[in-house]
Amino acid sequence: MNSIELAGVKVPRIGQGTWRMGEDAAQRRAEVAALRLGIELGLTLIDSAEMYGEGGAEVVVGEAIAGQRDSVFLVSKVYPHNASRSGVAAACERSLQRLKTEVIDLYLLHWRGQYPLAETVEAFERLREQGKIKRWGVSNFDLADMQELDAPTCATNQVLYNPEARGIEFDLLPWQQRQGMPLMAYCPLGQGGQLLRSPALREVAERHAVTPAQVALAWALRVPGVIAIPKAVDPAHLHLNAEAAGLRLNAEDLATIDAAYPPPAGKRHLQMV
Ligand code: NDP
């Protein structure tokens, strides 16, 4: 698996998302098994959040990583309404308990809320000093938010990025590249919807004898500094996603995708799901 350096540590360029996990007890065994298979396949970065299943996804992750904590890079996120000085500390404690770990590798502010950024950053830095998180970052921050944050210790910004949502290529993505700050692309498969049925992705997929989902992942990874975090429970999907790390798109492939999903010609507001 290709890796990238993120705030002093090597992480795989394809990880595993966990949104929609931990919501249905009947799915739990399959979800735990999926995360374990993903780890075996090298998808050792696991992205979760206190929001997912209202803690349920973190519980699933905790079960999946039992006995192999050191093999994974754990990402979780705090709700904006918990992003006060005391709220961050309490939320982190709850996440640590659900994840059954003593430290979160990367802790993100899920999106901007009512608390001043400086207060949240101070709370993150305190958690870092206490050894409860190793590094911190943000999510759903547009360029102006990043400039206002102005924090050299911010490890990443996790945002929506796939061919249907490529507005960040105009300003945010080049800015993060200039800062040497990796960008985590969420919903890289467009949540398994229309994107994977697009004629453009199908055409490229046929050329390489791969699937449209693999093309979508290779498309995100064509950009240096990008990490993709597809979520998959189906074991076949996990194998395909891990294999996509080796797929390289050529100029003709990129032109086919550009024709269907043109790159931004000007500023677009950051899209979120
Ligand atoms: P994705 O774009 O990752 O799509 C997930 C869907 O694609 C699932 O239905 C999955 O099916 C399917 N899928 C996975 N692999 C394949 C494949 N190889 N071929 C075909 N279908 C496939 O959507 P998500 O919304 O889950 O985004 C990814 C992750 O990003 C989230 O899980 C979460 O961790 C993070 N995220 C962060 C946000 C934020 O605000 N910071 C917002 C949204 C997401 P199946 O499960 O059946 O295998």
The helix tally amounts to 10
Overall structural class, as computed from helix and strand content, comes to alpha/beta
- Shape-level CATH architecture: Alpha-Beta Barrel
Inertia-based shape: globular
The amount of helix comes to: 25-40%
Distance between the termini: 28 Å
Distinct ligands: NADPH dihydro-nicotinamide-adenine-dinucleotide phosphate
Number of strands: 10
Radius of gyration: 18 Å
Quaternary assembly:
single chain
Give the rounded overall mean pLDDT.
98
Jot down its keywords:
single chain, alpha/beta, TIM Barrel, two-stranded antiparallel sheet, globular, binds NADPH dihydro-nicotinamide-adenine-dinucleotide phosphate
Topology:
Elements: E1 3-6, E2 9-12, E3 16-17, H1 28-40, E4 45-47, H2 56-64, E5 73-78, H3 85-99, E6 106-109, H4 117-129, E7 136-139, H5 143-149, E8 154-160, H6 172-179, E9 183-186, H7 199-208, H8 212-221, E10 226-228, H9 235-243, H10 251-260
Helix pairs in contact: 1-2, 3-4, 7-8, 7-10
Bound molecules: NADPH dihydro-nicotinamide-adenine-dinucleotide phosphate (NDP).
Question: Can you describe this structure?
Answer:
By secondary structure, the protein is α/β, with parallel strands linked by helices. The protein has a single domain, classed as NADP-dependent oxidoreductase domain (TIM Barrel, Alpha-Beta Barrel). Helix content is 38%, strand content 15%. The protein has helices at residues 28-40, 56-64, 85-99, 117-129, 143-149, 172-179, 199-208, 212-221, 235-243, 251-260, and strands spanning 3-6, 9-12, 16-17, 45-47, 73-78, 106-109, 136-139, 154-160, 183-186, 226-228. The strands form 2 sheets. An 8-stranded parallel sheet has the order 3-4-5-6-7-8-9-10. A two-stranded antiparallel ribbon has the order 1-2. Helix 1 links the parallel strand 3 (16-17) and strand 4. Helix 3 (85-99) packs across helix 4, helix 7 crosses helix 8 (212-221) and helix 7 runs antiparallel to helix 10 (251-260). It is globular and about 50 Å long. The protein starts with a strand and ends in a 13-residue tail after the last helix. The structure holds NADPH dihydro-nicotinamide-adenine-dinucleotide phosphate. The site of NADPH dihydro-nicotinamide-adenine-dinucleotide phosphate (NDP) has 28 residues, from helix 9.
